Fold this sequence. Notes:
About 45% of the residues lie in helices and about 25% in strands. By secondary structure, it is of the alpha+beta class.
Amino acid sequence: MTTLHTVLAASFVAVTGILLGLTLIQRSRIRGVRMSWVSTGLGSLPVWPSVFMGLVLVVMLYSSNTVASVDTNLYIGYFVGGILWFSAVYLGGSVVVTDYGIIPQATRSKDALGWGQVTDWFEQEEATSVRFTFLYQDGVGHRQRMDVVVPGPCLDRFRHLIRTKLDPSTTPPVAPVHHRQALNN
Length: 185
């Protein structure tokens, strides 16, 4: 039975290590990154990895007090796998803002919103953050909505980026052309 648990724990650590590696590779392939942040707050905590690590700790404490034959290293292996899983889900849930648009979750680039798709946007202030709502049309012309919660420390930079990408009044002014200079070039 111990051999089975050892193989399962080693397999779990290997699979979650690969998951974390793939998450890091996918995140590093995103080009033109202007800013990014990991969602904070209770609602953004990876639930299933947290529950798994909590169960591992409870079972480890229970078995250490009742069953002396179970090796503690097995539980450590499961817990390390849980940490790798937690890290992959946590990093994969980061919001990435690029020169080309917004990716609401780093591992789901198919849900990206290009700046050219945005038809309107507005912001709503919350306690420690601001929620930006973007209205846009998807590839087939259906109207969609994307909400992005921006934490306080990133707010000024994000607002500046939004104004430069979406606000037509911030386009650089055209220099006046005198005496048909443009035609002579």
